Amino acid sequence: MRLEFAKPASFIRAHSAWFIGALIVLAAALPLLVSDYWVDVCVFWGINVLLGLSLNIIVGEVGLFNMGHMAFFAIGAYTTAILSERFGVNLWLLIPVSGLAAAGAGYVLTGPIIHLRGDYLLMVTIGLNEMIRISLINNPFALTGGPNGLIVMDQFRIFGHVIQSPADFYYLVWAAIALLLFCLGRLQRSRVGRAWNYVREDPIAAEATGINTRWAKVLAFTLGAGIAGATGTIFAAKMMVISPDSFTFMESVILFCIVILGGMGSIPGVILASGAMLVLPELLRNFAQYRMLLFGLAMVVMMIFRPQGLWPSRRWTTRLKEGDGE
Amino acid sequence: MGGVRTGVASAAESACAGRLPCRVEMAIFLEQLVNGLTVGAVYSLVALGYTMVYGVMRLINFAHGDFFMLGSYLGYTMLVTVLAQSNLPLWAMLCVATLVSVVAIACLGVFVERMAYRPLRKSSRLTAVVSAIGVSIFLQNAAMLIWGARYQAYPPWSVPEVSWTLGGVNVSLMQLLIMGISLVLMVSLYMFVQRTTVGAAIRATAIDHDTARLMGIDVDQIIRIIFVIGPGLGAIAGVLLGLYYRQIHFTVGWSYGLKAFTAAILGGIGNIPGAMVGGMLLGILEMLGAGYISAAWKDVFVFLILILLLIFRPTGILGERVAEKV
Amino acid sequence: MTQETPLLSLSAVSRNFGGLRAVDSFDLSVAKGSITSLIGPNGAGKTTVFNLITGIYRPDSGKITFSDSALIGMLPHQVVEAGIARTFQTLRLFENLTCFENVLAGQHCRCRAGLFACILNTRSCQAEEVRAHSETERCLRNLGIWHLRDELARNLSYGDRRRLEIARAMASRPKLLTLDEPAGGLNERESDELMEVIREIRDSGITVFLIEHDMRVVMGISDHVAVMEYGRKISEGTPDEVQSDPAVIEAYLGIDDEEDERKEAGESVQ
Q1: Count of domains in chain B?
Q2: Interface predicted TM-score of the whole assembly (ipTM), two decimals
């Protein structure tokens, strides 16, 4: 007898192939349909989705309160800028290199603090975020360019084509998201993904059931940091100038809230929430100055009336492959 | 963060670089100590709000720093509008400004608790924390819309410019006022919590809400009292800080809030004397770090101490052991 | 006392909490293939003994040996991997996960797939998953909760939650199953069923070690009983021997607020 896992049935799920196909076609055609301005908005949305998904591994899947995620994004972006400008390293190569640098930092920095209780961990990650941002401003060894940051002149090239237009970046970012979604989907229903959820539900029971909780937590932190670092390379190439202002504690908090508002551990939730955060304000330009005010209010209202998030994640249930053998 | 006092800090730095007579070095040390105690007193007052809310509700009240910031702005507005027209003596103006600010912020505190925290008292801690972040973002942006994104300055005439030189150390009236007022407030709060019936009820509620309720304590009332005292103390700290540094900005809520929360953890969160000790210690460490190590790196220094403390003594200096029960 | 080789043995194990001597040079051996019970009044240190065995606490002194290897210094998950599974006195389930996923957790330590194997979904990873699923199914069926596999744990009735926790422990294929008050909160019919389940587990070759308050359950299924009071072992033997030991009767009669236990202990004397 072989078991197969499935999410609970719904209309969308029953016709998922059609929906996904239509979404892919629509997404691929988007740059032809809307102005460059909107394509750019979608690029930044995509970068936030990548960051949100990476943080979702830590906050959503394992339940570790990380409010300093921008630190790892910053490490990735600065690694890219420094290696690219000083040593002329190819940008494609820098995606994994920056990812590894940030993952390494995540591994080393979180090792000693990973056992801390929720609130304390939150405080320490905020502290790490601030320490790294202040270090970048202080320009140690004249590496980081101080408050003005660094310039990245190099560009991604693919078969002689230079990735520079908004549409080029749009395809690059959303292709990266597609790849990440595939990997995360696999992880969610694997031994590793389940271990993360057990730790989130009850770390003591997880440990007593034979799960190495420390391994699960450190793995999630390292992986999340690594993905954020790799995203930093794309961000640096897109922005061409990076400065400490992009990596403040406030940005980390907003990213954290995106994950919670989307629904902890929910991939569509992260995409939806970061879209709401980036695209909606563009639609409501007249209210631009009230954007954050409304965001704050929305967070309170959401927590009171819909604490599970916009699109809560649902559990995988079993389905018997060969008939239902009750 | 702040950075207004760096003048003093860099003076100390250059003094250390050149070899100065022992007495001068001692004077610089004492001056940094006084500066540290002054800032520390402000941290302590703000930290008390964090620690009391955490003690009773197990909630990191992210909005507390913003109560402090709004208190500072309200004091400023009172001084430059209504009171500037009056012909009250300066001390009376300052008292009125502080009083109005305290009453308004205490009301705001109670209102926020009622609207944003009480509906979430039974839900997970994370939900309440996110709601608190929402309140914080809301208040911060409201302040920005009301008072503008630029620095506002307390009028020069509002600050009593009196100072003395005691044994080569320059001490201003404002510094003495801040330390004196903080000390009186903290001691009376401690007495209130330790010696009165209401104080006993607060302590009981901090241990267990349900048991306290069974003993006939109105837990809602206790939490309301906490949200009068905490934000009220924050507002006083806000006015004092405004008078000390003159300049105020809508982001001081987060920068000082983060320091104050660090102070609360340093002393042992939930512990009232701990918040006082933690605040003072943090202020002194920060100013000595600024004077003898580097002003630019002082915040890195502060967070490093926080992280090391949490790793080696996660309960803070005065905190009790809180074992996770199996 | 027992002629068989002990699967688990504690010798002179002590543990202090502050000034309190929770466990005081405690000796115990659990024979292979037996059902051994540890009883004693509230606060006698029974759960502490459990936590010492399962690696949550570390003893201040003494030795704990499990099938010829030392357990002390192992982390809780390593103890599970070595072959000791446990349940909790206050149930600790993964409330928001399905029963199937809850039980699958037990198989975690018997699988090896790492991050990259999971992303690449390698052949060995797939094979491992199939094995883990069939093992999970077996445990759910043995405990009679297979039909609840897709329910979230938090929606289960109390009796089913107890079963689910045992199923989860069984899924790690333990040599020794340790149960912390498995009959707590169960009614008579449910505890009868539980006794049947425990016997079946023993008959399948797994040694069972339990803490229990319900004397009917303890005396009904145990091969061997140890009695604890104030951190010390005061008596040990077959259920009959223990029930007639004056030290045990005194320990139980000495407690005024434990009405039930007094009654039960009293009954067993007559």
Answers
A1: 1
A2: 0.88
How far is the alpha carbon of B149 from chain C, nearest alpha carbon, in Å?
A: 45
pLDDT at residue A266 in the model: 87
B233 near B184, Cβ under 8 Å?
Answer: no
pTM reported for the whole predicted model: 0.86
Cβ-proximal residues to A61 (8 Å cutoff; 6+ apart), any chain: A188, A193, A196, A197, A200, A220, A265
Domain that holds residue B19: 6-154+179-312
Residue B308 contacts A where some CB pair is shorter than 8 Å:
no
CB contacts of A2 in chain C (<8 Å) are 130, 133
The ranges assigned to domains in chain A are 29-248
Structure tokens at C127: 């094979």
What CATH number has the domain bearing residue B284? Answer: 1.10.3470
pLDDT in tens, B195-230: 999 999 999 998 888 899 998 899 999 999 999 999
Q: Does a structural domain hold residue B325?
A: no
Instruction: Establish if B159 belongs to a structural domain.
Output: no
Q: Do A191 and C134 touch (CB under 8 A)?
A: no
| CATH H superfamily, domain C84-173 | P-loop containing nucleotide triphosphate hydrolases (3.40.50.300)
Nearest-angstrom CA–CA distance, A236 and A228: 12
Question: Side chain identity at C149, as an amino acid letter?
Answer: R
Q: Do A205 and C92 touch (CB under 8 A)?
A: yes
The single residue listed with the structure tokens 């695209």 is: A279
Dihedral sign for Cα atoms in the order C132, C134, C138, C140:
positive
C201-252 tens-digit pLDDT = 999 999 999 998 888 888 889 999 999 988 888 889 998 888 888 888 887 7
* B positions 130-159 inside 8 Å of A (CB): 130-131, 133-142, 145
Taking CB atoms and an 8 Å cutoff, what residues of chain C touch B326?
Answer: 47, 51, 56, 88
CB contact under 8 A, B129 and A117: no
Give the neighbours of chain A: at least 3 Cβ pairs within 8 Å: B, C
Task: For residue A78, give every residue at least 6 positions away whose Cβ sits within 8 Å of its Cβ, in sequence order, or none.
Answer: A136, A143, A144, A150, A232, A242
- Residue count of chain B: 326
pLDDT tens digits in sequence order for chain A, 326 residues long: 455 666 655 666 667 788 888 888 888 888 888 888 889 999 999 999 999 999 999 999 998 989 999 999 999 999 999 999 888 888 899 999 999 999 999 999 888 888 887 778 888 898 899 999 999 999 888 888 888 888 888 888 888 788 888 888 999 999 999 999 999 999 988 999 999 999 999 999 999 999 999 999 999 999 999 999 999 999 999 999 999 988 988 889 889 988 988 888 888 899 999 988 887 777 777 777 788 888 889 889 988 988 888 887 776 665 544 333 33
**Rounded mean pLDDT of chain B?**
85
Is the CB of A107 inside 8 Å of chain C's CB atoms? Answer: no
Instruction: List chains touching B (3+ CB pairs under 8 A).
Output: A, C
Q: Is residue B70 part of a domain?
A: yes
Residue of B nearest to A302 (CA): B131
Q: How far apart are CA C148 and CA C132, in angstroms?
A: 18
**Concatenated DSSP letters of A185-243:** HHHHTSHHHHHHHHHHH-HHHHHHTT--HHHHHHHHHHHHHHHHHHHHHHHHHHHSEE-
Amino acid at A135: S
Q: C72 at the A interface (CB within 8 A)? A: no
Q: Which of B141, B258, B310 sits opposite A293 (nearest CB)?
A: B141
Question: Rounded to an integer, what distance in angstroms lies between the CA atom of residue A77 and that of residue A100?
Answer: 12
Chain C nearest-CA distance from B191, in A, is: 30
| B60 lies within 8 A of chain A by CB | yes
Q: Are strands A241-242 and A150-151 parallel, antiparallel or unpaired?
A: antiparallel
Q: Locate the chain B residue with the closest alpha carbon to C50.
A: B326
Dig out the tokens for A243 from the structure: 């400065």
